[in-house]
């Protein structure tokens, strides 16, 4: 499994922000964390030159480096970074490094301290997705991209595993399937159009492309996605949201759960779904679960899956220790 299969913790869609850059004369820093892939239209000139879908600094005439600081939308453990120099050919930086820090509260960029290098100064290629694995196991809230000495970067992707701060969670009413709470996609049958990470992403989907959509099936099977819950808990409410999926919503769905022993129980029997609708289903049986699986019939798209419930004592302890063990 590639680190790129993990969610992008810095994504603007998940609440990420570029809070500071020392220079952004040619192209603004906010482009770094846009969810969309970079685009380029030749001969589109603004008053500062060719318009680029990325972050671009001026040509340096003195020694030094350029930097940008990103607040992660979902703090967590960084598994890898992608420094995408798409369409930057004669103006990309030859080297880059990435540092990370963990901050409590809401500090200004100037107040951030305790930077740790997670990617040492490394060579970059132009017009390329430059991939770098990260082995640090600590939880971080901010990253700092340094380019040597100047130039343009289209996108910065910070892939990893979110680690929730338990001080801000209600253990008795929690979305056990939420990325930001620590849930993870384990596997899925198909991700032709979009990543299954979208299914459990923060907030509602704004458009169809922010959900999970499979290719059209031409056989007798069905599509599915399995996930590891944030921690052991009891699911009491299932939310299946087909918002924005109109001619391509699944016709039916089931939801199952399992504990560590791998014994699967059905939470939701085969239910008919409506297009572009937020469906809520109460769960009458109480099962302690660490895993869940959504089956859609036969295929199609789902905006969000929410599994509301409460943590067991064991689940509470695991979620708290997961956070404490990863603090810098």
Can you offer a commentary on this structure?
This is Probable allantoicase. It catalyses: allantoate + H2O = (S)-ureidoglycolate + urea. The chain is mainly beta. The strands form 5 sheets. Strands 12, 13, 15, 16, 17, 18, 19 and 21 form an 8-stranded antiparallel β-sheet that branches. Strands 1, 5, 6, 7, 8, 9 and 11 form a 7-stranded antiparallel β-sheet that branches. The chain has a two-stranded antiparallel sheet with strand order 2-3. The protein starts with 16 loop residues before the first strand and ends with a helix. A hairpin with a 5-residue loop joins strand 16 and strand 17. The chain is built from 1 helix and 21 strands. The protein folds into 2 domains: 3-162, Galactose-binding domain-like (Jelly Rolls, Sandwich), CATH 2.60.120; 166-315, Sandwich (Jelly Rolls), CATH 2.60.120.
Radius of gyration: 21 Å
H/E topology pattern? EEEEEEEEEEEEEEEEEEEEEH
CATH topology of the largest domain: Jelly Rolls
**Proportion of residues in extended strands:** 35-45%
Which of globular, elongated, flat, extended, rod-shaped describes the shape? globular
Can you give the helix content as a percent range?
A: under 10%
List the helices and strands and how they pair.
Blueprint: E1 17-21, E2 45-46, E3 49-50, E4 55-56, E5 66-84, E6 95-101, E7 116-123, E8 129-133, E9 139-148, E10 152-153, E11 155-162, E12 174-175, E13 184-188, E14 212-213, E15 223-241, E16 252-258, E17 264-272, E18 278-282, E19 288-297, E20 301-302, E21 304-311, H1 313-325
Antiparallel strand pairs: 1-5, 2-3, 4-10, 5-8, 5-9, 5-11, 6-7, 6-9, 12-21, 13-15, 14-20, 15-18, 15-19, 15-21, 16-17, 16-19
